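Inputs:
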Amino acid sequence: GQQLNQSPQSMFIQEGEDVSMNCTSSSIFNTWLWYKQDPGEGPVLLIALYKAGELTSNGRLTAQFGITRKDSFLNISASIPSDVGIYFCAGQITGNQFYFGTGTSLTVIP
Amino acid sequence: GAVVSQHPSWVICKSGTSVKIECRSLDFQATTMFWYRQFPKQSLMLMATSNEGSKATYEQGVEKDKFLINHASLTLSTLTVTSAHPEDSSFYICSARPAAGTSGRTDTQYFGPGTRLTVL
């Protein structure tokens, strides 16, 4: 099936630093979604992107839908301890065709 | 908006028993619900796609007789793990894709909080 390459796999950063992670694919997607999952919880939708080139913010989070429609990135500015978790990207081709990245584990060191 | 609940949040059962997990869309209708399984520190593994009123579509390698899925209404899908064994212990997560004209977007999935299953 389709694969989403998400990187980096893990990050250890100091509190206050900015974070950047991205997802790439060989396929074209119509929707890009970014989720955060805390331990023992289900993923929570952070940002949804529906148009190529779209840049959307949600507080300290900013995500962009790549112009080629094959990639997306998520940035977190001025990280805080509660940003700790696993971040997943997901892409939708059409209908029920959703594909998930392997996740980026973020650790914020106070 | 677009809230999904799961029940129970955790369950412990004996080997050989069956366990039912419910997934509900609380403020929208969902023609499609997805069931995932997640092992520690791993990504989501799609088990099956469930469409209201029809049979679920299972991913390769997932036993449909082992993991029974019923999507009887636009707000409820259930996953029953039959004759559970310790290797079925895992974190099961459902998600829902909103129907057109209801709360939420049809090109987005909204996840439930997950169910931790432990089989002794």
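The mean pLDDT of chain B is 94. Flag for discussion at group meeting.
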